[in-house]
Design the sequence.
């Protein structure tokens, strides 16, 4: 084999030599193209685990040998085309900060080659463990399961046990769960154990979804919140006020105010049907703490924060994603910060060019809190709120 290779190299060298010899010496000599400039592309379509639902807004990225980032986002139909440096490349697909849902696959890309990868390698894989507290109106678990992901039911009393909830990365608090779980056996507005546990959960990186009446977990109240400054909750009253004064109606021309969300969805206005009265309207909020995702005129309808942190919460390991061999960083892409989750083994190289551990915005060690006034419900067509709720699930 060695002999054959030697022979081949010799012939090649002779050939090259004769080529050079035959050319005029004054001809401009083109420098060989450096490896890093040789590029191809990788195209495909991001799907949820069910293999049916296309996922828009997913971050698709890879690095060259110098850890320079190449990245793009899937369009609302899930399609992406990533310019990729030639060579053996690891392609990452992620939503959110990449800690809960992500997929990695390897490709070998030749210069100027466009590779289309099959759908079975571009499905977004669930890394997180997720739980929900059963509600009486919202059934977010149906949407989670419909996307092909798994979720465990826990109940109101499980929230009193920090060991139980610390096993999860994401917890969904469905509208009405406090009425269901409570059954008149305790008074939620004095349930300080639950509030402390939820504060500890988020402070240590867990993410929460709360819909409609379950805002009471966040800001106090019993089955729901009737007034500002109600006792209980773990988010300071100054940061959010909600009252259960919504009426049964349809809001037309609501706005998707978050650009990333609108880009992922492919639409920026929608009508939202509130099929029941007494829903939790957002009365006031701190705009430095909450980011509004959906609104109707100036009324906030869906919001999130990654800025919650409780100084009094103990350090508790939360979830499974922290021990997965991956780590979330803020990568500096020529001055633009991009949140990525990368292999732990690659961390040192990224720290070496100035990246930092944790997400690029908010409190880097805390999880997200999403609050939505509208939600999945059994009694009606949720219309274009469906894709919004799917986005929330994938970005918690
Ligand atoms: Zn980096």
Sequence:
């Amino acid at each position: 084999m060695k002999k054959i290779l030697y022979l081949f190299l010799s012939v090649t060298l002779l050939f090259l030599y004769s080529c050079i010899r035959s050319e005029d010496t004054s001809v401009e000599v083109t420098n060989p193209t450096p490896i890093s400039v040789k590029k191809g592309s990788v195209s495909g379509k991001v799907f949820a685990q069910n293999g049916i639902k296309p996922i828009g807004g997913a971050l698709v990225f890879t690095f060259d040998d110098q850890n320079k980032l190449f990245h793009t986002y899937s369009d609302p139909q899930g399609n992406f085309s990533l310019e990729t440096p030639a060579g053996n490349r690891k392609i990452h697909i992620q939503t959110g900060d990449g800690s809960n849902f992500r997929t990695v696959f390897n490709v070998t890309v030749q210069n100027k080659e466009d590779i289309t990868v099959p759908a079975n390698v571009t499905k977004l894989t669930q890394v997180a463990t997720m739980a929900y507290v059963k509600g009486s109106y919202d059934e977010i678990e149906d949407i989670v399961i419909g996307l092909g992901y798994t979720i465990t039911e826990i109940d109101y009393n499980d929230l009193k046990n920090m060991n139980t909830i610390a096993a999860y990365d994401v917890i969904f608090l469905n509208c009405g769960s406090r009425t269901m779980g409570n059954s008149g056996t305790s008074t939620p507005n004095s349930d300080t154990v639950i509030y402390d546990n939820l504060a500890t959960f988020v402070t240590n990186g867990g993410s929460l979804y709360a819909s409609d009446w379950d805002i009471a977990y966040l800001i106090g109240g019993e089955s729901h919140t009737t007034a500002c400054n109600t006792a209980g909750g773990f988010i300071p009253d100054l940061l959010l006020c909600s009252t259960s004064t919504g009426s049964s109606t349809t809001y037309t021309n609501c706005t998707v105010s978050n650009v990333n969300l609108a880009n992922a969805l492919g639409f920026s206005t929608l009508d939202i049907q509130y099929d029941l009265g007494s829903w939790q309207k957002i009365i006031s909020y701190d705009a430095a703490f909450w980011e509004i995702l959906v609104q109707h005129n100036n009324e906030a309808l869906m919001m999130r924060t990654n800025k919650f942190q409780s100084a009094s919460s103990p350090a508790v390991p939360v979830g499974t994603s922290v021990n997965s061999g991956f780590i979330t960083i803020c990568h500096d892409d020529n001055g633009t910060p991009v949140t990525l989750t990368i292999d732990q083994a690659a961390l040192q190289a990224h720290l070496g060019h100035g990246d930092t551990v944790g997400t690029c915005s908010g409190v880097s060690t805390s999880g997200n809190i999403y609050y939505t006034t509208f939600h999945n419900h059994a009694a009606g067509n949720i219309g274009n709120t469906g894709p919004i709720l799917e986005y929330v699930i994938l970005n918690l």
About this structure: The mean pLDDT is 88.
